[in-house]
Structure formats: structure tokens, C-alpha cells
Predict the 3D structure of the following.
Amino acid sequence: MATYREKRGTNIAPIVSSLPTSGVNGEIVYITGEGLASYNDGTWSKVTATGPYDLVMLVVGGGGGGGGWTGGGGGAGGYQTSTQTMSAGVALTVTIGAGGAGGYYGGGGGAGGSTSRGVTGSNTSITGSGLTTVTATGGGGGGGYTTGSQQTGGNGASGGGGGHKDGVSGGTGTSQGNNGGSSSSSSYNMGGGGGSGAAGANGNTNSSGGEGGVGTANTITGSSVTYAGGGSGAIQSARSGGGNVTAAGGGGNGGVWQGTASTAGTANTGGGGGGSRDAGGAAGGSGVIIIKVPTANYSGTTTGSPTVTTSGDYKIIKFTASGSYTT
């Protein structure tokens, strides 16, 4: 039986009306916005393609928490992309990393809690048989007030900003991000957390600096969205608009002494949390996984309640919580 394939639009009705009512010997297959539609002996049915195809993935780790007391911004979660060849019937496991908690604040003045540095974000990953595992690691926490290593920005996919003052260094980033900025050497202006696109800024002696590093824009959903921006560090005195405003990518704003509170990294962007001044640090944003599949190959078999949308000839599967997809 002959099979013909022809690119058509999403509206099947005009196709049906154009077909002959008799003398059709064979199967005619049309590619529609909902997959392959097979017309045979007057009946339409959906056909799922089973051959190899390219699976496109965006994987972002959880952002680091901002430092407490006099805190640096949290580093962004790792930013990873991958395109791999897949066939039907493979179960893919999706794990979404949480953002790290903000650093401790003891209150009452003076050095205190042993965890004033923000907590490192958790890893985000996608695994499956025949798939090369893709893991985006968590961002480093922002440094805090307490002595020793707690003042230094934590290492991670992107490093957290330096806390306290006296030029404390930011954490070290990896190939998935960038370093955090250092705190000021002479005032309580803290370092910004690193972002996937740029390092965090250093704090300085005026009410600027310490902003988080910019994230990275991605168009997998069909429109440009920026992910994995660093959180901003705390600052000593208010400036127009409040605290340090972070660059694009979901990072939180740094807090101001006796002023604006820090803010958390945006959920499902991997943004770092803002560092705080005389308060607990803000949490980092959780990670995300987005999968792009040709509509003709989309199985519809998922767990974890991802959001599924259509962009052109593709299904976009967005996981904001852990789950699975079977190809």
C-alpha cells in the first residue's frame, strides 16, 4: 500500500474536503500540529512517529541562598543545554533542584550563627537509558558576617558573593557559571553572586556595586527567557529604587541596612538569593528542565504535572517539579 507524506497545516477539515470520495487506493498521511494524521478509507487517525529524532533540553540547577547578617548574593544554579538523538519508549527521569536557604542571622549584634553563609543550591538532572545524563549543579551561597570561611562566598556552578567587609572574596564558579564578586574593603557593601553569563560585581565604597551577574537567554520555549542570574549583595545605605538590583536571570535583590529587605531568587530560574543586611539571607530560586520534542514524536506520557505547550512544529514540556517523560 502506497504512503504519501505531505506538510499541511493544523486544520484537517480542508484536507478532508479536498480528498476524492472514491478511487483512493492507499494511505495518505498528513503532518499536522497535533502529530501525524493518517487518512485511510475515509477515516482519520493519529499516528505517533517512532523513528529517531532530536530531543533538545535546557537544564538549570537551584540557585544559592544569599548570605545573612551582612551577606553576599547567592550564586546562580548551573546552566546546561543538550541535544541528543532519541527513539520511542525511553523513560526519562527528571529531578528539579531546590534553591538553597538563606544564611542565618543571630540578631542582637555581634558575630553569632555558624551558618551565616547561604546554603548551596541543589542539582537538577535528567537521566534515562540511552541518554547521556545532563546535570546542572547548584549555585554557591553568599558569604555572611561570621568569622572564617563563612564570610567567603561559597563555591558552586556560580560562586556566591563575598560577605562581611574587608575585601572578602567571592566563591569560585565552574564551566556552568561564573565567580562571585568580593565585598568592599572599607564598607558594608557586599559582593554579588555570579551568574551563568557573567561574574558577580564587587561591592565598593558607595551605594552601588555588588550586583548579581547576568544570566543567559534561551529561546527553547519559542520566546526569549533569561535563566540563572546571580543574587545581589547587601548594601550599607539606600539608593534610588532600594537595594542592589540584580541583572536579568531571576536573581534576588540585596537588602539595605535599616531599609529594603532582600528578595529571593525567582522560582524555576535558578536565580541566586539576595544577601541581607542585619537579617537572614533570602533563598535561591529552584531549577527547571524544559524539553523540546517534535510534535509528531510527542508521546503524551508524563508524570509530575509538567506544563506542555506548542511552539511551531514542537511540543515544549516544562518541568517545575520532579517527574518523568517517556519518549
User: Anything to note?
Assistant: Residues 1-35, 108-113 have pLDDT under 50 and may be disordered. The longest helix spans residues 13-18.
